[in-house]
Amino acid sequence: MPNCVRVRLFHGREPKLYEMRFKGEAPTVGTKVVTRTPRGLELGEVRAAPHAVSKAFGEVVRVADAGDLDRAHRLREQEESLKWWLKARLRAKLPQVKVLGCNYTLDGGHVVVYYAAENRVNLGGVVREIARHAGARVEFVAKGPRDQTAFLGTLGMCGLESCCSTWMQQFAPATIRMARDQQLPLSPEKISGPCGRLLCCLAYEHPHYKELLADMPKKNAKVCTSAGVCGKVIKLNPLAGTVDLYTEGGGVITAPKEDLRPREKEG
């Protein structure tokens, strides 16, 4: 029997969905709900139809009413005010800490402060001061470079909003080998995203490139065309299905992969 729905909690712009149990009638997709998580009561939105799972992150307490939504709106204003107070306060005490945002639980008793820092920092000395100012228990959560991009939101090289802040549930491992297989220039500015790490889309597109490259000659292979022109493969064009050859005559030609055969070794 279905016992859970997936809910997006309002933490920055992160698209992560959490499994939430429900009792009684299942809330429909798009419904704002109050959930109970390890941090307390939190507002979220149902993003997937009911389904069965063995382990849940929390539970749906109720469908959010006008009072819940109004309280959440007022808390968002408090979060913004607290964020800028923290930026100013920590600039003097811990300048290496970058405050990304804050998130109150719906009851206002717990606030999560998201931050980034190049190295490990000790925040114990400022917790009490922040708790007094925030009027709530404070929890610090560090974000890495990729998580920062997901949390804050940004534009990708394609001109669209970054995948990590719109739909990705986890980061796909990307490697330099993937960039090589896709014939991309290996300069950091060409293959890195706004987070400074390798583009996530390298991993999404790599299986297709592997399939296209499977029946193409290797780079530096010596081949001949059906017309008898021989040379060395200097570039692969997997999407076009062609290769560039440096011919024995000193020129460069482009030939379809179907028109190539390995050059026979001379006796």
Q: What's this entry about, in short?
A:
By secondary structure, this protein is an alpha+beta fold.
SSE map:
Blueprint: E1 4-9, E2 17-21, E3 32-37, E4 40-51, E5 58-63, H1 66-93, E6 97-104, E7 110-117, H2 124-134, E8 137-142, H3 145-152, H4 176-181, H5 188-191, H6 201-213, E9 222-225, E10 230-237, E11 242-247, E12 252-256, E13 260-262
Parallel strand pairs: 2-5, 7-8
Antiparallel strand pairs: 1-2, 1-4, 3-4, 3-5, 6-7, 9-10, 9-13, 10-11, 11-12
Write up what this structure looks like.
This protein is of the alpha+beta class and 267 residues long. The protein has 6 helices and 13 strands. The strands form 3 sheets. It has a 5-stranded mixed barrel. The protein has a 5-stranded antiparallel beta sheet with strand order 12-11-10-9-13, with no helix packed on it. A hairpin with a 4-residue loop joins strand 9 (222-225) and strand 10 (230-237). The longest helix has 28 residues, at 66-93. The N and C termini lie far apart (72 Å). The mean pLDDT is 89.
